[in-house]
Every structure is written in C-alpha cells, then in structure tokens.
Amino acid sequence: MARKTARPGRTLALLFLAIAIMFGGIAFAGTWKPELGLDLRGGTEISMTAKNSEGGSVPKESLDEAKSIIDQRVNGSGITGGRVTTEGNDVIKVSIPGTGKVQQETAERVRQTAKLRFRLVACSPQKPCGGGAGGNDPGSMIQQDPTGGAAPGTSPRAPFAGEKASPSEGESASGDASSKPSASADADAEKKSDNATVKVDDAVKFMRQPPTEWATKYSSFSCPAPGSDPIEDVPGQPLLTCDDQGAPYLLTPAVIEGTEIKEASYGIPQQQANYVVTLDFKSDGNKTFAETTGAIAGSGEQFAIVLDGKVISAPTADSRISGGAQISGDFTQKTSAALANNLKYGSLPLDFPEEGIQTRVIGPSLAGNQLTAGLWAGLIGLILVVVFSVLYYRAMSIVVIGSLAVAGAATYGMVLLLSETAGVTLDLPGVAGLIVGIGITADSFIILYERMRDDMREGRSMRVAVDTAWVRARNTCLASDAVSFLAAFVLYVFATNEVKGFAFMLGLTTIIDVLAFFWFTYPMTKLMARWGFFNKGHVLSGMDQRAIGTVDDARPGTTTLVGGKA
Asked: Considering the entire predicted model, what is its pTM?
C-alpha cells in the first residue's frame, strides 16, 4: 500500500482555523485582557472570626481544617489566585483577586458555613402533623445512582430492590418527655447528645407521631423574613425551618451529618435533560442512608436535605438506596454546581457568626512597575531569541519567528478563555512561567534544524532531511517537554498557592509548544524545503553548504541540491 502523502498546507490551515475560532469565542465574550492576581490588581478580603459551637476556645486543629476547606472552595476550580491564611487563634482571612460578579459569588461561597444534615419530614404543608404521608412535591426525588457513584453520563447499573429496615429491639417507643434524660443527668452529656445524630428508628417514630409540644410549635411557626439570622440547627434536636419558597417544615433530629459525604458531583445523566447532584457516602453514612431510605421507601414520606438550617430539597424514595444516590429536582447548572461544590468540600468544623465576618477591598501587594518590569523582561528575551535565530538560521528564521508568534497567540488566547470560564488569574509568578515558555519553544526548532543539518552533511537533500530529522527531533522534543510538564505538575500539586501560578503557566506553555511544534514548525519547514531558494542552498537560506559545514565540497559555479540529489 502506498504511503499517505503528507499535506503540510492542510495542517497549517487547520491550525489557523482553530486559532481563529478561539479568538472568535474571545470576541464573543468581549474579554481582551486577562484577570490579574492579587499582587498586581488587588481584590476582596474577607475576615472571618471562628466560634467553637461546643463552647470554649477554638482548637487549632479545627481552625487548620476550616482553612483547608475554605482554600479548596476558593481555589478548587481553576487558578483563581486566592489566598487563605490564619491570624491569631480564631481568625481566617480570605483574599480573592478582583471585585466583580465572579468574585462576589466566590465570597458568598466562602462565607457559607455549609452545615449539611439529613432529616425526616414530620410536618409540612403537604403532610399535616400525624396525618400520614401527603402529596409531596412530585418533582423532587432521591433515588439510587444508576452509575454507581461515577460521573453522570456513564454506563448505568441495576438499582437495588426496595426493602424496609426492621426496628431494633430495646429502643424507646415514643418521642415524648418520658424518653428524655432525667433532670439529674450530667449537663455535658446532655449537650453532647444534642450535638449527635439519632438512630433511624427514633427519627421514624418522631416523624410518624410527632410529640404534641412540637406539633403545637409547628402550627404557630412562621418563616423568618428574608435577611434574618439563619435558624439554629442542632443535630440532636427537632428543627422548625422553611425552604426557599417559604414553606414551613417540622423535621426530626438529624440522622446523617454532611461530613459523612465521600464525594459529590453534578451533571446531566444519559437519556435525561435535567441536572442532578450525585452523592456518595462513607461507610457509616452509607449504612445509615440505606436504612433511612428503606424505612420510607414507597410510603411517600419525605427525606429532607438541610443546608445551613434551610430545607434545600425534600424528596421521596421509592426504594432502599445503597451506595451512590442522585438528587433530582429543579436544578440549573449554576445551582447544581454550587450545591455539589459545597457538599464536596465538606462542612466547616467551626461556626463563623455573621457579626464576625468583615469584607473590604484591598489594593495590589506589588507596585505597578513590577508587572512592567516582568513584561519588559519577556520582551527582551523574545528579541534576543529572534536576533539569534536571524543571525544563525537566516531566512529559515521565518519558521522560528512564526512558531513563537503562533505559540504566543495560542497562549494568550487560552489565558483569556481560562480567565473567563475558570477564573484563572495572571500573577507575577505566572508571567515568569510564560517567559520560561519562550525558551521551551525555542528549544524545539533548534533541535529540528540541527538534526536536519546533520542529515544533510551525510548527503541527503533538504526535502529528505526534513522527514528523517523529524523522526529523531520529535522524540527528543516530546521527552524534553514531558520532563518540563512533569516538573510543572509536581510544582502545581505540592507547592504553595504563590507558586501555583508559575507552575500552571509553565505547564500550559509546554502543552502549547508541543501543538505548535507538530502543527506549525514541522509542516512549515516541510513547505519551505520544496522551494528552490532553500533546497538549492541560497547563501541567505540558512541551509547552504557553508551553514551546514560542507563548504569544502562545493564546486564554484554549480548549483546542486544542498546535501545531495536524493
């Protein structure tokens, strides 16, 4: 079978088409400047004073854990350039670049305490107290995740059959005052009990026969006005609360804490049109969740999901759910992503009262001339590379300059797109990473051209030398870029946030260098090898006999293919 003929012109056309599409998207978004980081632009600073929900001083371990969770919320997606630090024994400071809409949304996500708990619905507008299951919201359903905890859209598996859990022996038969601890019980033990979840059987009994005192409280309960202080959510106590539509609920004590969630994601499953949030529990949480959904399976009774004291969903369950679960309802991409992120990054181990949260605008930590100096450094480095290429490779430097231009355009376009879609910011370490990328791009064509010259010294023509040199140069460049990308990856994973910007930009420029090398440098060099100016060894071509080191073999007055006639 004949070997497929390479078409460098088509490859170049596809490359320029891809770049044109990218910049078309940028023009549509209307963003032509990248978002700058804290050091170059300033932004929003949130100061949060922690409070120990169990009283006493704030444990250092809990403060460090809260800092880690907040850092994941701020920098969990993209290189936002956020900075999370602790101050004193109870203060966490969060600095977010910029002051726009995206930054405000990030600030709101940071301020949210994300105390998630799972409770059963005892009374609601659809279910009178003690009146059995009523007509609950038919659009809200919690069900077995058919993907087995994988991301939405993957291959399904058969759901578990419905079954109910049997009550345990020896447990209290009612939720009235007779089941409460005696007045002589230790106060610390009672407080510990209030901060713990209850057994599923106790919650089910409370749900189906609410104590009279709680039913009376529910009948006179009215939802707080918007902007009021959040309702206090004590896990071991029943909860009177509302949902976003202002519907009141009486809920049982919590049966599962949000800290039992192992993983959370969102997406549109196969053969569906709406977003869902997928949950996967840890071992203990999975066991309790299966027991709870088994107890209400097929009864129409509701299972409330409570976030920061507010009901965000009150679905039913048509079967016992073991393993991953899907929450479906009136979700949009934004609301499902926000819920999944809060669940994924867990509940904060400390309380942050609203009166202890302060927000202010801060200026850049570096003077404006620092960015100017960085840009000048990059420009000088670029000019030196171009000057060296022109002096050493002469007309072949057209490919060198073109490769740098293509790589630069692709890098700038990607930074703009990532700033708009993923919140990526460009700080001074990031600028340094882009400058280092200039050297990586220069390495690629130097390796290719020197391989070509070696082959031409052995008697091959320039047309043949392009292909034979490409095989060896390609492997060398891939190995070199792999090492650079691995270094960037290690820095990104293990380094502090101040270095992540450098690592991200270094990795980005390394990937773009590979694409430019394959899609521009090689096909452009192959095209130029077909022109007589180059393959006949013009003195200005950069591929003449003097340049490749075979001038002693040249015969004055003759014109031959450089390196040979093949």
From this structure: 0.61
